Amino acid sequence: MAEILPFRGWRYHERFQKNMESLLSPLFDVVSLSQRRKLYQNPFNSIHLSVPDGSDAGDLIRRTLGKWKSSQTIIQDPVPGFYVYYQYFKLPGAGKTICRKGFVAHIRLYDWEDKVILRHENTIQNALDDRKNILEKSCFQASPTFGLYLDDENEISGFLDDAIADPIYDVEDYQGVREVMGLIHDAKVIRKIIRYIKGKQIILADGHHRYGSALAHKKAKRQQNENYSGKEGFNYHLMHLCSAKSEGIRILPTHRLVRKLGISDQEILNTANRYFQIKEVDEAHELEDCVQNKRHTFGLIFKNRAYRLVFLPEILHHEHSTPEVIKNVDVNILHLYFIDKVLGIPMDKQFTSPLIEYERNTNRCLSEVKEGDAQLAVLVGEIPMEQVIKVCKSGHTLPPKSTYFYPKLVTGLVFSSINESDFEFPYEVFQ
């Protein structure tokens, strides 16, 4: 099962400690253009190591790394450790503070067929190529992906709590989330955590493109290395690991915006009537509540009218080409029946189609349609964690952007290098 290692993280020099909040940035796939412009103004913000301002991201990151290392903007910790990472947050409209507990480690890269790292989403090739290029030229991982392990016993939470009691960082991020990080250097504790995770499968919750690009990079490097041992740095990947049973696991919906299609709203409704029960609603902003926790229910928003769509259950009885484990998943129904059959965008074209955009904010969906920038928006509900686990274990996948684990991890607290000079260490001491 999963093999993990502690690592010698690269972190901002202590002279930046008081300004850590100004150095954090959103992950590359969620940072907006307006956020980028603002963050680029700070020459030391972590955005320059994840989404640099220029055409060749790999070269830019490589050059920035050289400057930051030589000037000691970032320095490498002298000994390996696990970086305990807690996020304290509140959900919209809720008063209770929730804590998502986890730790950051190096994890061995496994092929999907090995069924050690389990995925639930498809990936887009262009995004894979972009991240692979960055890894090839920099050998640097600016932010961890997000993995979940099934933890009925909760055996290692005490070690994590002990480490977070004396944090190296305690800051607030752009989401209003409190980001706290501690360190585990105790070799005995590290050994116990390694042994515990070794018996687990890991569900890849977020970061499918970064993991996929790291896997492609590993395969390319292995072919080039005649003396391959399996211990090289390129065999490992930076991941934040969290118990799937944690109360801090929250999956929020990601809605779909559709640009101008060349077909009328009425034509869309006429075709949708074959697959959905359609009911017009008076207020579009009420649709978000209409779809939450209601199976096979979606909100359809046009510029001047809005509808609740409920998928006709009898259609599933005649659906034999889709695997049972995913054919009942709402987001799959949305893509297969509404986007494909109603809107006429085939499944195999959807993920690269310029007509489809993904938006988590409902108000933004409403304004985009109202102002005419999009022809329509489709609101979806949350996907239960239990359903994600079933899909992962089945080996099947869902469309991209099927899940939005909240809160997002941030970039800037700790970085990882898989360059051999940075990675090399007698890790046998932790066995």
Beginning-to-end CA distance, first to last residue:
15 Å
CATH class of the largest domain: Alpha Beta
Shape: globular
Count of discrete alpha- or pi-helical segments spanning 4 or more residues: 15
Q: Specify the structural class.
A: alpha+beta
DSSP strand content: 15-25%
Mean pLDDT: 93
Architecture (CATH level 2) name of the largest domain: Alpha-Beta Complex
Helical residues, percent: 25-40%
Enumerate the spans where pLDDT stays under 50 for 5 or more consecutive residues. none
InterPro entries: UCP033563 (IPR008323)
Protein name: DUF1015 domain-containing protein
Pfam families: DUF1015 (PF06245)
Written overview of the protein:
With 431 residues, the protein is an alpha+beta fold. The protein folds into 2 domains: 4-251 and 406-430, Conserved hypothetical protein from pyrococcus furiosus pfu- 392566-001, ParB domain, CATH 3.90.1530.10; 254-381, 2-Layer Sandwich (Conserved hypothetical protein from pyrococcus furiosus pfu- 392566-001, domain 2), CATH 3.30.1760. 31% of the residues lie in helices and 23% in strands. It contains 15 helices and 23 strands. It has helices at residues 33-40, 57-70, 125-138, 157-164, 187-197, 208-224, 265-272, 287-291, 314-317, 324-327, 330-342, 347-350, 362-370, 385-394, 420-423, and strands spanning 4-5, 10-12, 25-26, 74-76, 82-89, 98-108, 117-118, 140-141, 145-149, 169-172, 178-184, 202-206, 236-243, 250-252, 255-258, 276-281, 297-301, 306-311, 356-359, 376-379, 404-406, 410-411, 416-417. Strands 1, 5, 6, 7, 9, 10, 11, 12 and 13 form a 9-stranded mixed beta sheet that branches. The protein has a 6-stranded antiparallel beta sheet with strand order 16-18-17-20-15-19. β17 (297-301) and β18 form a beta hairpin. The radius of gyration is 22 Å and the shape is globular. The model has no long low-confidence stretch (mean pLDDT 93). It comes from Negadavirga shengliensis. This is DUF1015 domain-containing protein. It holds the Pfam family DUF1015.
